[in-house]
């Protein structure tokens, strides 16, 4: 599709989003944009930091400003832009992940029941209940052996380049073939009587049984400082929690990764089967593929279409969803590594091979390296693709949706920036589309690396640059 034809689809859609920005009376000529941006990035607080920026017009690719746009940067979650672009091209927007249940034997007693997972990141207890109800409707009352087949993904559940300190929490869970409830559970720490240990409350009893917790959080006097720290043992499923909670505090809640996802799935499904009146005599987990006869497919559930799943990836920056889709790409492509599938596809799309190097699909790894130019090229090329609207609508929206929902709230261009954020310690990024009232739509990538400034300062500086871009005028 050419940009000429695009004007009635993608560009027509985005021009329809544009509103006036009365809050910013100043206009900036395109020739002056560079000096305005440099006034921000050359401030003393950034003297040891590294900026990579590229701003272009979306329709004709005119470069309005660039600094180190051809150099590598750690992109953080901007990596997801590449993962989702490849996924749409390889799998298609209508692709669904199917979780199947196969049976051997005749109801009411089955010799075996095998649950085959294919990496659906959206699977919850609700879907397990649907599977159990389908089996009940077929007359199943007893299963001699329940087999949980967790062998679909060939890649490691945890990427070895992820930071160890992240591996306890919800944003870095294990990624296996049978994901359930995003492989996480909420844990709340509640103050008790003065000088007494705080109370731990788990949202999922099965997850709670997997972890041994040493709780050293003490309840302190009213108005005292709240501090909570988590540590994990990497040889055993042990969590250490230290700190203090004021007696009048409402408590502290976070989400913890499941220690053993396959066992969690098995125990959860076994419990739900029992609730439906289906007894299980014994249960087994399989992590290596086998050639045994699966039997008849007795029940199945499917994920929402990929077009919906990438909303979670790009809009909410969900790492588990991104990593699951990465592994699905690999498994659906002759068991290749997912990053190799992304690489092949982006090269086919027209991206230079040496302009990016990926270690994962989510951006958790600091070994990911991408140039601002590559991100801009991917955004532009996806804007010309049949999946342009799906891809664009998956992004966060300033002041309205996803990771940009609470940004730009004090501006008058809420809804006119659609982008992907990225955050690691010392890293911040924002890439996407900006729809300017008195100028052309823009495509851009802004990244900053190697900084000791707090994340709030990084976001503020990036937002200043976006506001400058929004003031462009034909002059």
UniProtKB/TrEMBL annotation:
GO annotation terms (biological process): peptidoglycan metabolic process; proteolysis
Keyword Protease: yes
Recorded GO MF terms: serine-type D-Ala-D-Ala carboxypeptidase activity
E.C. designation(s): 3.4.16.4
UniProt keyword annotation of Protease present: yes
Domain of life: Bacteria
Keywords: Carboxypeptidase, Hydrolase, Protease
One Pfam family named in its UniProt record: Peptidase_S13
InterPro entries: Beta-lactam/transpept-like (IPR012338), Peptidase_S13 (IPR000667)
Similarity field: Belongs to the peptidase S13 family.
Protein name in UniProt: D-alanyl-D-alanine carboxypeptidase/D-alanyl-D-alanine-endopeptidase
Organism: Gloeothece citriformis (strain PCC 7424)
